[in-house]
Amino acid sequence: MTDARDVRISPSILSADFANLERELDAINNADWAHVDVMDNHFVPNLTLGLPVVESLLKVSPIPLDAHLMIDDPDRWAPAYAEAGCKSVTFHVEAAADPKKLARDIRAAGARASMAIKPNTPWEPYADLLPELDMVLVMTVEPGFGGQSFMAEQMPKVRAVRESIRTHGGDVWVQVDGGVSAKTIEQCAEAGADTFVAGSAVYGAESAAAAIDELRALAAGHAH
Ligand SMILES: O=C(CO)[C@@H](O)[C@H](O)COP(=O)(O)O
Ligand SMILES: [Fe+2]
After folding, report:
1. Three-state SS at 71
2. In the annotation, is 73 catalytic?
3. What is the ipTM of this complex?
4. Looking at residue 169, what is its pLDDT?
5. Any idea which ligand is nearest the CA of 142?
6. Is the model's pLDDT at 72 over the cut of 50?
7. CA separation for the pair 130, 190 (Å, rounded)
8. Closest CA to 33 of 145, 194, 218, 168
């Protein structure tokens, strides 16, 4: 059984005020992680920030950073985010040349190794990678932008990932990212997700801290 302590909320600073990121990190200090979306305008059609900004965020963040790398050639770049101090580093399997080696490199550099799959990418061909992973991120929007509509049709994939983890054993977290809000988080938890990214639902709320508490309570009520 999963209880409230096993539900993790990771607000995405993509929806924060980029001119005031230290203040925006402080505003979510009751969250478990801060989710940082790194986009390179190649893997996705958007450009955000890279390692120098992440290094600065690491100096001031009250909570650990969860780096979501939406970039080409993660084999080359991802371990540096772990070496810099990100406690979780997610690469996209669609972009990785050697996902097994990359996951090992991330772990060797001191971070949790996480693999993301886009909405049109099936899970089954990658299930054998589970022993190398600490988290699987099932995208619930096409990566690239905050504020998009949640794709409920990804819930069977969340169930399939959770089932593979049950079968293979191991304490692998299942993260969902994209359109997660008070309206959609319960079905994610019900399907087997335990780690929830929310950008606009947190930073668009009157109180980010209250939104985080609400999301955590809703997810915990449906976790299993
Ligand atoms: O990775 C991404 C988008 O590609 C996300 O992390 C978004 O930043 C989530 O934003 P919301 O959908 O919650 O507004
Ligand atoms: Fe993300």
Report:
1. coil
2. no
3. 0.99
4. 81
5. 1
6. yes
7. 21
8. 194
